């Protein structure tokens, strides 16, 4: 009996070892041929089509396609469509006189970047190429057709075009050529603004270590920036305000020194700053950054498939992939970890919402003061306080992941903003009192459509014009792009 047990046990062991060896052999064979190129990707001219890169790197490409997914939805952020103005109507007042008051949505995945930019009301409704309110610079972060056109036209010439001039050229959303060198597949910087920002700080971006490059390819776009219209005549030149450093105050100091403002608010007449999305700058103040964790570690974690380890290009919230992102380092329960993230977001949201309302009211009170005859001298400090308060609010909310990336820093910025908002409203109460007005200023109902009408927007007209643009000019752009790309040869290098 013992012999039979020993025999059966031995057979099971031999079978198991045989299966294991066979499996390892298969995986090694897969690994050997996994990245055998099927096509030549041009190294002379930028190849913007992800579908071409995907022939050589199918796993990365297939995972990237998942950025089109819009199913994730948290309490405050999501990967699907959410009308930020509807949820936060104070924004309409804060951005009065600026295109963001017309339309502002939470960002979707990278696959939607080009489509969403075409459809957003902020880009206007050009009737023909060269028409419309926005410069070509607005395309800069939307896809690899941008470095392709910068290569063809020149950087200054690209920034000198109108947004609609390049409509038929911009059809490939954020992808492979934005971050990878086609010859070596190394991470690379394709946006000159980031290179120039490092030069302004006295640093060489080419000497950055690989782990930092896993941040910097993201920092090409996920940063604060402005359009410098004085650098080159006729160009809206993209510049990162990093000359003094990366903090909110450093950028503000730079803007103040050059007398820069994005627009003059039509209600308060304050010279305003519009923060973009300073994700990299805020991340650099975080615990994760100090411990050497990169953007890609959480938003593009490694995964294994068919014996291959590769970077998951389904770029999105780590909360949709906790096992591969968070659990590499953390050992909490899933529900506990998610609850911690949502709690941070909730606390920051409470502060930013309070700040937004205070600044919005300050704009309305300033409008009343001007109507009653306030002088420039009376209003100078008040308007500067409004500018500073709103800049701090915008800097905090424009970075969508800030409440998790660095909640202490964001709450510090919000607290500072509340101080300036309080000073602005206190100053306004004194001015209004001197002008004989000793009662609360009447406020409109804080609803998106009500406030858009209050600041003079004709939203019916805006939407009708955009709809016409989408029906007429956009199809022409897409047709031209399809015809152009059909002429670009794809050279096969393998029949396998």
UniProtKB/TrEMBL annotation:
Location(s) in or outside the cell: Cell envelope
InterPro entries linked: Cyt_c552, Multihaem_cyt_sf
Domain of life per record: Bacteria
CDD domains per the UniProt record, alphabetical: NrfA-like
EC nos: 1.7.2.2
Gene Ontology terms: cellular component: outer membrane-bounded periplasmic space
KW Transmembrane helix (keyword) present: yes
Pfam family, one: Cytochrom_C552
Keywords of the record: Calcium, Heme, Iron, Membrane, Metal-binding, Oxidoreductase, Signal, Transmembrane, Transmembrane helix
UniProt record similarity statement: Belongs to the cytochrome c-552 family.
One GO BP: anaerobic electron transport chain
Molecular function terms from GO: heme binding; metal ion binding; nitrite reductase (cytochrome, ammonia-forming) activity
Keyword Heme assigned: yes
Class of enzymatic activity (EC top level): oxidoreductase
Protein name in the entry: nitrite reductase (cytochrome; ammonia-forming)
Membrane spanning stretches: 6-25
Reactions that this protein is recorded to catalyse: 6 Fe(III)-[cytochrome c] + NH4(+) + 2 H2O = 6 Fe(II)-[cytochrome c] + nitrite + 8 H(+)
Organism expressing this protein natively: Capnocytophaga catalasegens
């Amino acid at each position: 009996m013992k012999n039979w047990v020993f025999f059966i046990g031995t057979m099971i062991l031999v079978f198991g070892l045989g299966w294991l060896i066979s499996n390892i052999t298969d995986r090694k064979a897969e690994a050997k041929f996994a990245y055998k190129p099927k096509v030549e990707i041009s190294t002379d001219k930028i190849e913007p089509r992800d579908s071409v890169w995907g022939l050589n790197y199918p796993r990365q490409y297939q995972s990237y396609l998942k950025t089109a997914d819009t199913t994730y939805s948290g309490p405050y952020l999501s990967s699907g469509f959410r009308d930020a103005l509807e949820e936060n109507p104070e924004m309409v007042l804060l951005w009065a006189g600026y295109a963001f008051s017309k339309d502002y949505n939470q960002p979707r995945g990278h696959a939607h970047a080009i489509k969403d930019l075409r459809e957003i009301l902020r880009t206007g409704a050009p009737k023909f190429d060269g028409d419309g309110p926005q410069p070509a610079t607005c395309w800069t972060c939307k896809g690899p057709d941008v470095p392709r056109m910068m290569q063809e036209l020149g950087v200054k010439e690209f920034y000198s075009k109108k947004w609609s001039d390049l409509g038929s050229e911009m059809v490939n959303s954020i992808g492979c050529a934005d971050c990878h060198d086609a010859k070596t597949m190394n991470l690379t910087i394709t946006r000159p603004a980031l290179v120039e920002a490092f030069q302004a700080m006295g640093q060489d971006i080419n000497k950055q270590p690989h782990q930092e490059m896993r941040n910097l390819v993201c920092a090409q776009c996920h940063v604060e920036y402005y359009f410098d219209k004085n650098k080159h005549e006729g160009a809206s030149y993209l510049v990162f305000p990093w000359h003094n450093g990366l903090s909110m105050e450093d950028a503000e100091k730079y803007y103040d020194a050059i007398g820069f403002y994005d627009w003059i608010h039509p209600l308060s007449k304050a010279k305003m700053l519009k923060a973009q999305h300073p994700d990299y700058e805020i991340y650099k103040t975080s615990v994760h950054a100090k411990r050497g964790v990169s953007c890609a570690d959480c938003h593009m974690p490694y995964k294994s498939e068919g014996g291959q380890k590769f970077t998951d290009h389904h770029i999105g919230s780590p909360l949709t992939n906790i096992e591969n992102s968070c659990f590499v380092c953390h050992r909490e329960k899933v529900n506990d970890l998610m609850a911690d993230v949502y709690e941070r977001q909730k606390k920051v949201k409470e502060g930013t919402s309070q700040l937004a309302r205070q600044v919005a009211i300050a704009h309305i009170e300033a409008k009343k003061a001007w109507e009653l005859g306030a002088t420039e001298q009376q209003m100078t400090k008040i308007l500067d306080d409004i500018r500073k308060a709103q800049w701090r609010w915008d800097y905090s909310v424009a970075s969508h992941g800030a409440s998790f990336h660095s909640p202490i820093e964001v709450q510090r910025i919000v607290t500072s903003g509340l101080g300036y908002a309080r000073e602005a409203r206190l100053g306004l109460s004194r001015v209004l009192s001197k002008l004989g007005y000793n009662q609360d200023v009447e406020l409109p109902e804080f609803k998106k459509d009500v406030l858009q009408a209050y600041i003079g927007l004709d939203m019916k007209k805006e939407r009708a014009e955009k709809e016409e643009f989408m029906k007429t000019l956009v199809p022409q752009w897409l047709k031209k792009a399809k015809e152009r790309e059909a002429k670009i040869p794809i050279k096969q290098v393998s029949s396998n």
